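User: ok so my PI wants both of these folded by tonight, can you help

Assistant: No problem, let's get them done. Here's the first:
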Amino acid sequence: MPVSSPFVPLRGACLQRLQWLVAGDLALGVDAARGGRIVSFSRNGEEILTPASVHPDNYGSTLWDSPQRTWDWPPRAVLDIEPYGVSHDGDTLVLESGVDPCGLRFTKRIRVEPGVERIELEYRISNCGDAPVRVAPWEVTRTAGGLSFFPFDASDGLPATDLQPVVRQDGICWYPFAPAVLEKGRKLFELGSEGWLAHVGQGQRLLFVKTFPVTPRDALAPGQGAVEIWGHDEALYVELENHGPYVLLAPGEQISYPVCWYLEPLPADLRIGVGEPGLVALARAIAAR
């Protein structure tokens, strides 16, 4: 294997079962046998994603089809938990699901961009059935509680936000994880005005930033927001969620949804807290790369 290859085998039975992409001290692990799920994203060995030891079913990061009302719960097994095929397209890891009975197939294309130290993901949803399907891409990323924030646009017509506490200040929506007030079924629904969502894990000095295309209100799937945050009922983790546009796919058509991930150390003098302008400035600088 050439030294320049981003695909790096790591030691240990569990680690070798995964597909790994590594750039410097940034590493991402994917479990193709478990729905092509991203199960690890770390910097210098410090993990940002929730592992299976926290919850046996809901861990790591995955792709769902939106709106949820078309499948309720659980997610479609072929797309969420059954094995994906694995191939490589140059420096891109390609994972492909089977075809769900509804006609959908997911493809996840993942590569490392070493120069800017980011993970580039492209999600594709294909209609392999015989009838048109309305669908939107939905990335669901599970991480430990901490401080989540993103720029937002106020909008009527979204589902009511009942997750607490939520602070909207100077165009930024903040969610400081508060297990003591977390109740079942509580969620935040918003529009994202700049196409990024950031999170600092509890007790960590790492800033996790996801960037994605802005989805306007009139392009959202019914009953969903462009950015959503859900706190697990038992306070085990939070879900950082972003939605792409809701489209009609004719048989043979597909939609592509690009996302980038960053994981950056925080400067030693940068304060963590609701309303901290330094956090917002750093997240914006990262998202602009």
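One down. Here's the second:
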Amino acid sequence: MLAVVAMCAMATIAITLGIVVMLVTESWHFFNSQYVSVRDFLTGTRWTALQSKSIEDAKFGIWPLLSGTFRVTSIAMLIALPSGLITAIYLSEFASSKVRATLKPALEVIAGIPTVVLGYFAVLVISPSLQWLTNGGFDAFNATSAGIAVGILCLPMVCSLSEDALHAVPRSLREGAFGLGCTPLETATRVVVPAALSGIVSAFLLAFSRAIGETMVVALAAGTQATYTMDPRAQSQTMTGFIVEMIKSENEYGTVQYYSLYGVAVTLFVITFGMTLVGQLVRRRYRETYA
């Protein structure tokens, strides 16, 4: 059994290293091209890898894709983080057993909805509703509708992980707060939440990484035009959305346009890896240990 466990651990490490090697080697073909400059890639504000008719006219500035990614992610987090935390506090500290037995399965149902279904929900329900409310102020495909759908997708994750962190706080802390005259709301917000802060922040960062890496929702609802703007009403092609579009395009293997998807993929990997490191540091910094 020890050998089996060790083999599983080594397989996990080998798979991770294989992914890193694949990204580095394939993206090297992109960055080594005469048409690509690392400086322009990191600072450029135009991305026309699929729109340009010739490779000489193509622009490979990553910021339009980063802008679209963070627009969608920011909207999603504005929905998922406060709603998920408030729901977790309610379920952990205030809800009765009957209410908890109803809400928990409902959240699990939301978590089990396929992302492609949420993508079509954004296209057929959320986006037309936004256009109707603003009298056509939104594009047919926009960052807001995609962000709302991604927020719905991340909500069960935030709620479940935050509730687990709140449940891990010892009962003695609550009883001590009650003994000092705190109300249930004060106990929940000033004692329990700070005590579970490391787990809550980890849940937030995990949801943030999940939103950045979401593919199907943004590929369907955000649009296919990379725009360098902060306007949530405009189309917003994300990094994952571009990867999907490039794979579906007619660009042949070995072209600079084809290898550009690996340049975008390695950028996405660096961002998510950085978020994981930040999450580990935050967890260690604010972790509370109770006897």
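The two ends are 32 Å apart (CA to CA). The chain has a mean pLDDT of 86. Good luck tonight!
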